[in-house]
Automatic annotation (TrEMBL):
This is GntR family transcriptional regulator. CDD domains: WHTH_GntR (cd07377). InterPro entries: Bact_HTH_transcr_reg, Chorismate_lyase_/UTRA_dom_sf, Tscrpt_reg_HTH_GntR, UTRA, WH-like_DNA-bd_sf, WH_DNA-bd_sf. PROSITE patterns: HTH_GNTR. Transmembrane segments: none annotated. Keywords: DNA-binding, Transcription, Transcription regulation. It holds the Pfam family UTRA. Residues 7-75 form the HTH gntR-type domain. GO terms for molecular function: DNA binding; DNA-binding transcription factor activity.
C-alpha cells in the first residue's frame, strides 16, 4: 500500500529541501531554485513555496538575500561525539564544552542547583531507592550565545554534599574533572537516545522554531567497579544536531 504523507504540503516541501541540505547536496552558500522553479518542481502555488521557505528560514537552514534569492546558511549540523566530552579536562583547563566546542564560543548557563526527588528512571539508573533525593544541576549549553542543549544532571547525595556539585556556581574544569579529583573518575557510560516532540519548557529554553522535535539522551555515568555516579537527561533540538559514534576493532575481533 502506498504511503500517504498527511502533513501540510509546505511541510513536505520543507522536509525535502532540508534533507538535501543535510546530505550536502545543497551545500552551505548554495542558492536554492527560484520560487517559480520550485512551484514547477513541486506543482504547488507560490504561496505554498513561500511558506515552505519560511519554515527553513525559521529553523536556520536558509537565509534570504534581497534581490538575489534564498541561500543555504553557512551553518553545518553540530556533530556530537559523546566520548569527546566525558574524559576529565586537564588540570587548570576549562570545561570541555567551553574550551573544546570547536565550532564557536561555548558557554554554560546554570539554571538551577538543588536537592530534588528525581524521576523514577533516575533513581533506578543510580541504584537508589524510589523515594531517594538526589542532587540536581540544571544547565543550558550555548554556542555563540545560541542555546543548543539542555542538561539535567543528577548525582547521589552522598557524593555531592559538601562539594562544588551542591554549590550554585559553575565548576571550574568541568564536572568530570571534579569527579576524578574526588576519587570517582568517570570511566564508562551508557546512552539511551530517543526523539520526541519538545515540551513547552524545552521549546522555550532552546528557542525552538515551529514543530521541531528534540533528541533526548538518558545517560548513566559509571566510575570504577561500575558504580553509577551520575544520571543525566540531555535534550537537543533535532534540527541542529547529528550524533557521531566511533568504534575500534582490535585484531582479535574485540571492540
Amino acid at each position: 500500500m502506498a504511503y500517504r504523507d498527511s502533513r501540510p504540503r509546505h511541510h513536505q516541501i520543507a522536509a525535502e529541501l532540508r534533507a538535501l541540505i543535510m546530505s550536502g547536496d545543497l551545500p552551505p552558500g548554495a542558492r536554492l531554485e527560484s520560487t517559480q522553479q520550485l512551484v514547477s518542481r513541486f506543482a504547488v502555488t507560490g504561496q505554498t513555496v513561500q511558506r515552505a521557505l519560511a519554515v527553513l528560514k525559521e529553523e536556520g537552514f536558509v537565509v534570504g538575500r534581497a534581490g538575489l534569492g534564498v541561500f543555504v546558511r553557512e551553518l553545518s549540523p553540530i556533530a556530537v561525539e559523546p566520548a569527546a566530552y566525558m574524559p576529565p579536562a586537564q588540570p587548570g583547563a576549562g570545561s570541555r564544552w567551553t574550551d573544546g566546542a570547536g565550532r564557536g564560543r561555548g558557554r554554560v548557563h546554570l539554571v538551577d542547583v538543588r536537592e530534588v526527588q528525581p524521576p523514577g528512571a533516575v533513581n533506578f539508573a543510580l541504584g537508589l531507592a524510589v523515594d531517594s533525593a538526589v542532587q540536581l544541576r540544571q544547565q543550558v549549553l550555548l554556542l555563540d550565545e545560541e542555546p543548543v542543549e539542555l542538561a539535567w544532571l543528577y548525582f547521589p547525595l552522598e557524593l555531592a554534599r559538601g562539594t562544588a556539585l551542591a554549590e550554585r556556581k559553575l565548576i571550574r574544569g568541568g564536572i568530570p574533572r571534579l569527579l576524578a579529583d574526588a576519587g570517582h573518575p568517570p570511566v564508562e557510560w551508557t546512552d539511551q537516545i530517543s526523539a520526541r516532540p519538545a515540551t513547552a519548557e524545552e521549546a522555550r529554553l532552546l528557542e525552538l522554531p515551529g514543530e521541531v522535535p528534540v533528541l533526548r539522551t538518558a545517560r548513566t555515568v559509571f566510575t570504577t567497579d561500575r558504580r553509577p555516579i551520575e544520571a543525566s537527561v540531555l535534550v537537543k533540538g533535532a534540527h541542529r544536531y547529528e550524533l557521531s559514534y566511533r568504534q575500534t576493532v582490535v585484531p582479535d575481533g574485540r571492540v
